[in-house]
Each structure stands twice: as C-alpha cells, then as structure tokens.
Amino acid sequence: MAVERTTIGQRNRWLDNYIRLTLERDVTEISKIRQATMLPRLLAVLAGQTAQVLNVKNAASKLQMDEKTAGSYVRLLEAVFLILLLPGWGKTLSSRATARPKIHVVDSAVAARLLRLTPEKLAKNGPTALTEFGHLIESFVVGELIRQASWLDNVATVGHWRTVDNDEVDLVIERDDGQAVQGMGSTSILNPKDVKPMLKLRDSLGELFQEGIIFTTGGVTYTHSSGLRVVPIDRLWNGRTVRPPS
C-alpha cells in the first residue's frame, strides 16, 4: 500500500507540474496577461464544467473576475490545448452559429486532478463524484474520437447536437459533402433515456444519418433494438472505431 500511495503522489505532482509549466511557459508566451495568478483557478473552475455547455459568466462570478477577461482567458487555455471548445452542430448555418459550445478538458487525468476526483471518492458512490466521473468519461471519449476523426480525409465538421428540450448527442461527425452524419454518445450503463437523443437526431436527419454509436463501460459490442451500435469504451484503444461516413 505504501508503494501505491507513493506512485499516486508522484503522479499528482507530475500533473500539478504539467499544469503549472503549461500555464507559466506557454500562456505567457502567447499573451502578456495582467492576472496570471487567476489562470490556474479559472482552469480548476472550468474543469467542473467539463462535458457541459460552457458558462463563462458563472466561472467569472465564482472567481470575482470580469466576464470579458474570463472569456479571453478561456481562449488562451484553448490555444495551449488545455481545454477544447466543441461547437454546436445543426443542419443550418444559423443553428450552428447560435448553439453554445461545450467545454472539455483535453486531458482527463488533468481534469480528475483539478476536481480532486480520486478512486477513494468514487468507491463511496457519492452522487457528486459519480456525476463528475460521468463527465470525465464523456470528455475522454469525445477527445479520443476527435483525434481519430482528424486522421480521416473526408470529415468536415465535428460538434455536439442539443435540442431545446436538452436532448443531446455528445459528438456529431459530418462528411465534407454533407451527405452523411455519424452521431456518438457515451454513458456508463445504457438506459432507455440514453438512446432517445440519438433517435431524435436520426429522425431529424433522415437518410443523412449514417450511424449512431453509444460508448459504455460494458464489455460487449452489440446492436441495440433501435439499430444503434453499443460499443465498449476500450475499443477506442483496442481497435479502430471511427469510420468515415459513407
């Protein structure tokens, strides 16, 4: 147990140093900022929003920052690849322009460290810790899928899809000619409510919808009765999952 604690302590120190060095070295090279000490605090607050619609006003309020300043700092954090802003996706340019982006902390280990989310907290099955863990799963899956999609030649757009009723598909990948779309989501255990948003997207798109995939922490790949594919998350590193829409 002592060895395990030492290893965890070393990992945490490495993550803390990684965050500090990235903020001190990369961000200050991009912009001369007046409140450099606020950046680590802002990043920690944004980690609490990972896999959720970005709310700069809320983050600024928690830190007693000017909202405009917080917004500019968010863009700096994105520029050094600590966070990803995933735009809204829609069938028209206007719907895409008005949709708010979702924020994802790029490295899920960094997000877990910022949230102080530990195996011990998860073992207690507290609702807050489990909710945060669910958000980390989504951010991890989205990040891995976007990296895989970047290797493909005919992908034009990636984004998240959200309705006024808050039905949401975590990631949408569209072919460059707009003729095929893949929808992808993530959850720990598949429930009926997890299928509903993807089916709404499929109904909305009709023939343009090529495939829907839901990633879970389960161990079996299968086709759901709705026609959606259910895939274990470990397929993201044990086998190629993303295929170009055709």
Question: How is this structure best summarized?
Answer:
By secondary structure, the protein is of the alpha+beta class.
In words, what does this structure look like?
This protein has a six-stranded mixed β-sheet, sandwiched between helices. The protein has a three-stranded antiparallel β-sheet with strand order 1-3-2. It has helices at 2-30, 38-47, 56-63, 67-79, 93-98, 108-115, 119-123, 127-149, 192-205, 235-238; strands at 52-53, 83-86, 102-105, 155-162, 168-175, 181-186, 209-216, 222-223, 229-232. The protein is of the alpha+beta class. The chain is globular and about 50 Å long. The termini are far apart.
Mean pLDDT: 86
Strand % is 15-25%
**Whole-number radius of gyration?**
19 Å
Shape: globular
Distance between the termini: 51 Å
Helix share, percent: 40-55%
Structural class: alpha+beta
Number of helical stretches of at least 4 residues: 10
- Beta strand count: 9
How do the SSEs run, as a string of H and E?
A: HHEHHEHEHHHEEEHEEEH
The biggest beta sheet, please? 6 strands, mixed
Output the strand order for the largest sheet.
4-5-6-7-9-8
Uncertain spans: none
Write the layout of secondary structure elements.
Layout: H1 2-30, H2 38-47, E1 52-53, H3 56-63, H4 67-79, E2 83-86, H5 93-98, E3 102-105, H6 108-115, H7 119-123, H8 127-149, E4 155-162, E5 168-175, E6 181-186, H9 192-205, E7 209-216, E8 222-223, E9 229-232, H10 235-238
Parallel strand pairs: 6-7, 7-9
Antiparallel strand pairs: 1-3, 2-3, 4-5, 5-6, 8-9
Helix pairs in contact: 2-3, 2-6, 3-4, 6-8
